[in-house]
Each structure stands twice: as C-alpha cells, then as structure tokens.
C-alpha cells in the first residue's frame, strides 16, 4: 500500500480560497481570539505528521492482529496504546473541546479536516478519540456543571475515553423499545441495568477510565422515544478528589468479529446496577444524545471520504507504475512508452475513468464537508439570522454528509480495488482492507436508508420545503452573481438545471405523498443522492470560480493545481452530475411497484 500523504494543499485551498474561513473566523467573536490562519495551518501541519508518521505505520498490523478478548479484558493491537499516548500528549484529544474545561475550542472546519487525516491513516484508531469528542460535546451542552467539571477535563486530557451506548439486540435502530432500566437512588444517582450491543470502544486498554453515555428508561417512563433518558455511566466511579474509585459493574461480555475495522473494539456491554448520572432532563435523553449522534454522523461521512482518499492515492500510484497493454492510439501516434515492453495502465480509458471518478467525488466530498462544517461553525459561534441559517443548513445536510459520502466512499474503495485488478483482491497490497473498513460506514450511526428518510420525511417534508429553500436560495444567489461571467457558463448552466430539477422533484414528491405517504419511503434513497450531486455541483462551481480567477497568476496554490482543479470540475459536470437524471426518474416512478407484491411472493 502506498504511504499516506495528507492532501494539505487541497485543504488549504478550501479553507482560505474557496470558503475564506480565516476571514469568517474573525467575524465570530467566540472564535476570533482562538484561531487565525497561522494557527490553523500549524495545527493541520502537525496533525499531518501524526497521521503519516504515527498512525499510518500501525494500521496494517492493527487490521491483521485486531483486538483480543480474554475474560472481559480487551487488548488493542500492538502499537495502538503508544500511538494513543502520543496523540493525547500532543493535545489532540482537546482540539474541538470547550475552552472552559481545558479544550482548545477549534472550529469544525478545522476539526473535520483533522478527522479526515486520522481516518485516512487508520479508521480503527480514529474511532476511539472521535467518539470521545462526540460524547464530550453532548456532555458540554447538556450536562450539569458538576459532571462537566469532573469528567470533561479528563476526557479532553486523553486520560479517559468515552462510548455511546444505544443499541440493544432486540431493538436495532428502534430506540423507543429499549429495555435498559434506570432506577432512581436517594443520592440523586440512578442504578443502570441492561445490555447494549455494537458499542464501539466500549472496552479497551487505551485509557484508565471509560465514560459511557447510556440510553435507559425509568420504570414509569412514557412508552416509546418519549420515555428515553440519557445517563453518564463510568467504568470506574470517581472519588471527590477526582481519583478513580471502585469498579462500577460495567463489563464487556464479548467483542464482535467483524468484516473490517478489526483494530476497533466493538463490544457487548453489560450494566449491572451500575451507578449513572442524568444528563439533561428526564425523558429527554434522545434529544441530548442526538447532539453526539449528529456529530458522529458527520464524522462517519468523513470516514467514507477518508477511505476513498486513501483508495485514490493507492490506485493512482499503482496505475502509474503498472505496465500492461498498449494505448489504443499507438498505431497512429506511436507507442507511449517505447523503452518498456508495455505502457502503464494510465493509457486505458476505463482506468482513467475510475481514477477521475475517485478524484472528482473525493474533492467534491471534501469541499461539501467543509461547507457543512462551516454551517456548524455558524450554528455554534454565530448570532441572530446567521446562526439560525447555520442551524438549518447543518440539520438539513447532516444526513447527506453521512449517507452520500459513505455511499461514494465505498464506491471509490471498490473502484480503487478494480484499478489494482487481481492485486486488489489479495491482502499483500492492502487495498482490500479499505473496502472492508469502508463498508461499515454505510451501516452504523443509522443506516443510509434511515438517513434518506430523515432528509426527505423529517427535514424536507416535515418543514414543508422550508429547510430546502434555505439551501436553494443560497445556490440561486450564487448563480445570479455569476450569470454574466462567460468563463463560468460551463459550470453555471448545469448547476442551474440541477437545482431546478431538485426543486421540481421535491414539489412532485411532497404533492404525491399527500395521498400516499409511502411515496416518501420509496423515493428517499434516490432523492438523497439527487440532493447530494446537486450540492456537490454547487461547491464544485465555487472551486471552479476560484481556480479560473487564479490560473494565470498561480495564486496561492500554483498553476498546475488550478489547472488540475478545473479539469476535474469539468469532468464532474460532464460525467458525474448527469447521474442525477436517472435517479430523478427512479424517484418519480412511485411506490406502487414496491408495495404491489405480497410478502409471500418475494
């Protein structure tokens, strides 16, 4: 496998040239004193060193050895504890944390790129600190001052890690029917009893304590999701002097043997009258947990992108070196590589198609991730209308980040495997690990089908199209501002068609659903991808605009960079954006063909 190289140039291009993040940060008082361009660049450069020098070298061994389980004890693969210690000692566990409790308070636009680096180097390793960051976010937003003082500082320091405990064997994604119980105690705590499955990082040897965020119900709680509460349950109780106390009856029953992410511990967790502490209000736990879940959903989307980025780097290096066959035009233009017995496979149209697909979709996903992260920063640090718009767009596009990026991510790991041919199917080259690791991203944190329903039913239909209009208004404003720019016409014309088609498709589906609600379920997956390609066209047009303006004077990134960006933008609009046309036809085909067949006839 090729050594991982962090795409720092592309990250800087997005931050400072396309989205002008450094200027945005200075307009937000809560961020202005914490981060500027120099600080951000230093963070990205140092994080790149961690990813390339500490994590990438242990990823292959982590996959081959994995985690082990022995009588309740989970041991991570060789090198993981040392790498985690190095990571924590560098302060990376505090990067996005609340400054009041020892965090660095960096914006999401920066931490998202940090996550991409970690996951491209090794998704399995990244899961441990990223889950802790998500749990800390929920605790910081909903926890009591006492809980935040006691736990956040140690989580940010990397002394303690965290997990999210939602799923139970009988309930899957239907959290309303969970059975884990919470019994109130006289001291204000709760006794938590129940079993949770598929708990990432539920048990391991990386930190001295593990803080579990657990969904449970009181005996008299309302039925369904309205009766869920959220509790903080530590593996070891914490004494008043913040030293570790007695074991809290939190145990790992087993670990899962998985298709991929072998170095990430996926645990069955047992709680047996374990002491827990309420986070937020009783019976409002799902809303509190969604703070973490939405953070993790965007993070999972980044995992999909990260695996695809690594796949592209591997496949491109292999394609340039692999000699096989001759160019189709060799009879008229001469052999491309006359000094060798064959040309590199870069001369073959289908190989170039796969590589350009990966390049265009990866760079588009990174740009769209940055756009969504920018909305989260406005939602977190902005004020007034600016904050409201950020909240709306972040909520609207979270399911796109999770589902669209991971569907494309898996597609691109398979494409990279295809470039390798037979070598991509064997372990020697490491490409098959990316396919296995990426596959889970479409499943956990809510399957992509659930994300599609969240987008279409809850966000779009639930707001009667109002949330979508916030996005389309912004795109249309961009289109209008470039209407007279002849150089931008090749990008603006197809973008205009795409946003018009998305608006018309939305209207059509919402109208049909008035008579048959199944119309939404039947079309949700196609709709999400239509939306995804349209949103990606928007950010690709923004990247093309900057590249056109800088191509003659080399700009900050250099002439070759802008030329490559423009070629890739043209490829996206010519070869990939048209995918939405067949998706629209499928979405409009209706639900009858899905539900006309009886279950017995399947």
Structure description:
- The protein is built from 19 helices and eleven strands.
- It is an alpha+beta fold.
- The protein has a domain of 146 residues.
- Strands 3, 4, 5, 6, 7, 10 and 11 form a seven-stranded mixed sheet that branches. A two-stranded antiparallel sheet has the order 1-2.
- Helix 6 runs antiparallel to helix 7.
- The model has no long low-confidence stretch (mean pLDDT 95).
- Involved in the assimilation of dimethylsulphoniopropionate (DMSP), an important compound in the fixation of carbon in marine phytoplankton, by mediating the conversion of 3-(methylthio)propanoyl-CoA (MMPA-CoA) to 3-(methylthio)acryloyl-CoA (MTA-CoA).
- It catalyses: 3-(methylsulfanyl)propanoyl-CoA + oxidized [electron-transfer flavoprotein] + H(+) = 3-(methylsulfanyl)acryloyl-CoA + reduced [electron-transfer flavoprotein].
- It comes from Colwellia psychrerythraea (Vibrio psychroerythus).
